Amino acid sequence: SSTEGLPELRKSILERLAKDGNNGELENIIISSGSQQGLDLVGKVFLSPGDIAVVELPSYLAALNAFHSYGGELVGIPMDEEGMQMDILEEKLTQLKNEGKKVKFIYTISNFQNPAGVTMSLARRKKIIEIAHKFNVFIVEDNPYEKLRFEGEPIPSIYSLEKNNSVISLGTFSKILCPGLRMAWILGNKEIIRKMAMLKQATDLCTSILGQLIAYEYCKLGKLEENIKSNIQIYKKKRDVMLDALEKYFPKEATWTKPQGGFFVLATLPEYIDTGEMFKEA
């Protein structure tokens, strides 16, 4: 297999992605050994010591560790119920530019964010593209939970809305097929994908051929959609149980997110509760 992955699997993924407006050719996609390798490759390609990655606050810890490992400095932007706050993002990017800092990309988990469970609104997605163009930075859109929507209308991905080829999109089979398969993909600018392939080759030559064939056959047989439907039923039930338990047992001053999909609910507790002590008890 080539480092980029089996052509038939890449074509199959591209066909699925195109249904949601996420278009690309074979040279725009590479198969990675799980999304974590994708995040590692993002760090490798983009970051040198002292470069800046702008991230949501809070964000996925393993992504932050991947960016940190290449000497990247992390700048966090707070979120509200519509996702990353764009006025603060623009202010921070202006400040960093004035300080002569090199911002390489903005990292966002646009759907059912880890750990907040928040989904970025359509208006914010359009705004983040506008801001990224203004400051000439890439957007890294991590999208592992997109298909695990329990209710509400799907929102077009940032990748599908952006027309200047400056969004790198990460997707995975881990949440829709099987986490142990370690099978994911990166979609984006062909020059970036080419660089990633060169760096990946030095790490593991290529992603497991057996795993790629399993994922391909599963897609070809049309079983992926029924598996997604089954996962949605399972995780929606878990979400409902969690929200009911929070309502029943948490103090009235506590607040929490009410996600329309994905895996995560983020609770904010009143000041009088010491979460450090609570963590030890748990």
Automatic annotation (TrEMBL):
<keyword id="KW-0032">Aminotransferase</keyword>
<dbReference type="InterPro" id="IPR015421">
    <property type="entry name" value="PyrdxlP-dep_Trfase_major"/>
</dbReference>
<protein>
    <recommendedName>
        <fullName>Aminotransferase class I/classII large domain-containing protein</fullName>
    </recommendedName>
</protein>
<feature type="domain" description="Aminotransferase class I/classII large">
    <location>
        <begin position="3"/>
        <end position="272"/>
    </location>
</feature>
<dbReference type="InterPro" id="IPR015424">
    <property type="entry name" value="PyrdxlP-dep_Trfase"/>
</dbReference>
<keyword id="KW-0663">Pyridoxal phosphate</keyword>
<keyword id="KW-0808">Transferase</keyword>
<dbReference type="GO" id="GO:0030170">
    <property type="term" value="F:pyridoxal phosphate binding"/>
</dbReference>
<dbReference type="GO" id="GO:1901605">
    <property type="term" value="P:alpha-amino acid metabolic process"/>
</dbReference>
<dbReference type="InterPro" id="IPR050859">
    <property type="entry name" value="Class-I_PLP-dep_aminotransf"/>
</dbReference>
<dbReference type="InterPro" id="IPR004839">
    <property type="entry name" value="Aminotransferase_I/II_large"/>
</dbReference>
<dbReference type="GO" id="GO:0008483">
    <property type="term" value="F:transaminase activity"/>
</dbReference>
<comment type="subunit">
    <text>Homodimer.</text>
</comment>
<dbReference type="Pfam" id="PF00155">
    <property type="entry name" value="Aminotran_1_2"/>
</dbReference>
<comment type="similarity">
    <text>Belongs to the class-I pyridoxal-phosphate-dependent aminotransferase family.</text>
</comment>
